[in-house]
């Protein structure tokens, strides 16, 4: 039986005329395969069309270090690959092909396939190419929109988070300016009163001793009573703006005995500028503490952004998964303000080798979905644990749950349970692709009042299949 007869019997090429079958044979070549032969590999460019003539081929995809059979080619005329003829570099094998039995295939290079089909039917060639690129374009634009929406959400949240410490820093700087001017005027007033050097040294010891006292931690009523007592004492001794000085002194633990000792050290004439100088220096130190706290908060936010984006790391690096989750929570802090976040992290889980920025996108999508499901209010529990050779991350929300009728569809591209305009339906599809790229598994367990999404990642991961990035 000739190769032409094989093609005549195969359903794919049965309708071709003899001349077309001859062209196809001239463009390709026949190969014979034995059981367990690896014919083509998932993720690599589909630069050949495989037309089955005889035998059986299993098609499989890798998920979590395992090859799962998704289809079987056993009927002459079934085909795989050749997508590079229509999609160029975007045309990759969607599964790996392994021979189950001995058999034969006609293998046609994609470039020759495009030429042959184009000569047979230019219109069909244009249609196939157009449909392929249109689908890819729609998918790319939708993913870009999903990324822009996520970026906008993160940018708004980050701006809000930075605004608070930035505003506190500006207030602290203004307060520091006023306090320094007030301190200088107090020093001038002390000089005008002719305070001697030994008196000023005593005054500085009072300042230092007050600085070392712990802040008064009594209740609001006791604090108010002490402020009133200090204010009355200062007014009785002709100390100006007693109402502004009393709160600072009361917070520092000043009492009547301390004030009387200060008066004895510097004299009644110099008491007013002395109290003002000590109060201004104490106030300045307090303002400096606030400024340090605000700038430290901004620095921490910058570090969280760097951790989230992994911009200071190699593309593939060993990371602490918990750190990535925490940086994501910081980025989404605005959306989480009415959410109780319960953390249950296993401190003993090891670092794993991942594409950190991609994995952080997974946490972003999953946390964002959980917040939307709870409509901004509820409890989000995040747990990390080790199970055998894997790290497991579980995110459980207190939302209403996912309808069992659609639970199996949550990873479908463009499928969403959100209202129109509130989601593209790509977040979970992207997350699944990223997790599978890391040889992991993502799955849902949902019932009313509790939905858990579970991400399982191997601690020791096999090499990424060449070209897999083009699928994400």
Report on the architecture of this protein.
With 472 residues, this protein is α+β, with helices and mostly antiparallel strands. The chain has 3 domains: 3-120, Jelly Rolls, CATH 2.60.120.10; 159-298, no CATH class; 316-471, Heat Shock Protein 90. Helices cover 50% and strands 19% of the residues. Strands 10-12-13-15-14 form a 5-stranded mixed beta sheet. The longest helix has 71 residues, at 122-192. The radius of gyration is 36 Å and the shape is rod-shaped. The chain starts with a helix and ends in a 14-residue tail after the last strand. Mean pLDDT is 81; it is low at 463-472.
State the helical fraction. Answer: 40-55%
Largest pleated sheet: 5 strands, mixed
Poorly predicted segments: 463-472
Assigned CATH superfamily of the largest domain:
Histidine kinase-like ATPase, C-terminal domain
Structural class comes to: alpha+beta
Gross morphology:
rod-shaped
Average pLDDT figure: 81
User: What gyration radius follows from the Cα positions, in whole Å?
Assistant: 36 Å
Beta-strand content estimate: 15-25%
């Amino acid at each position: 039986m000739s190769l032409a007869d094989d093609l005549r019997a195969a359903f794919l090429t049965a309708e071709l005329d003899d001349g077309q079958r001859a062209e196809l044979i001239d463009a390709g070549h026949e190969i014979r395969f034995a059981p367990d032969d690896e014919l083509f590999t998932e993720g690599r460019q589909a630069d050949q069309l495989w037309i089955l003539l005889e035998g059986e081929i299993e098609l499989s995809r890798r998920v979590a270090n395992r090859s799962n059979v998704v289809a079987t080619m056993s009927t002459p005329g079934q085909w795989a690959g050749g997508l590079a003829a229509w999609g160029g570099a975007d045309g990759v094998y969607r599964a790996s092909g392994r021979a189950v039995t001995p058999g034969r295939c006609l293998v046609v290079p994609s470039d020759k396939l495009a030429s042959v089909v184009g000569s047979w039917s230019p219109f069909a060639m244009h249609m196939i190419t157009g449909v392929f690129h249109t689908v890819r374009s729609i998918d790319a634009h939708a993913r870009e929109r999903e990324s822009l929406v996520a970026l906008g959400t993160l940018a708004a949240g980050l701006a809000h988070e930075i605004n608070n410490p930035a505003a506190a820093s500006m207030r602290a700087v203004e307060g520091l300016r006023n306090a320094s001017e007030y301190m200088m005027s107090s020093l001038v007033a002390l000089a005008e009163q002719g305070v001697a050097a030994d008196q000023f040294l005593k005054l500085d010891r009072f300042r230092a001793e007050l600085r070392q006292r712990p802040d008064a931690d009594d209740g609001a009523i006791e604090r108010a009573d002490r402020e009133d007592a200090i204010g009355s004492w200062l007014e009785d001794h002709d100390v100006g703006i007693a109402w502004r000085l009393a709160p600072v002194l009361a917070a520092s633990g000043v009492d009547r005995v301390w004030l009387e000792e200060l008066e004895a050290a510097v004299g009644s004439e110099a008491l007013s500028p002395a109290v003002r100088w000590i109060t201004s220096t104490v106030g300045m130190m307090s303002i400096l503490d606030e400024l340090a706290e605000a700038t430290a908060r901004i620095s921490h936010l910058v570090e969280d952004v760097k951790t989230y984006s992994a911009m200071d790391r190699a593309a593939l690096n060993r990371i602490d998964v918990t750190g990535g989750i925490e940086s994501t929570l910081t980025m989404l802090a605005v959306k989480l303000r009415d959410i109780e976040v319960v953390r249950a992290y296993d401190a003993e889980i090891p670092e794993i080798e991942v594409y950190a920025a991609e994995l952080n996108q997974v946490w972003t999508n999953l946390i964002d979905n959980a917040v939307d499901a709870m409509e901004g209010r509820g409890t989000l529990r995040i747990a990390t644990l080790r199970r055998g050779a894997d790290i497991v991350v579980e995110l459980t929300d207190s939302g209403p749950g996912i309808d069992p009728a659609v639970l199996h569809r949550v990873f479908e591209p463009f499928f969403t349970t959100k209202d129109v305009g509130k989601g593209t339906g790509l977040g979970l599809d992207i997350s699944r692709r990223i997790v599978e790229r890391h040889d992991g598994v993502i799955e849902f367990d949902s019932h009313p009042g509790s939905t858990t999404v579970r991400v399982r990642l191997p601690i020791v991961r096999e090499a990424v299949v060449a070209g897999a990035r083009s699928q994400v």
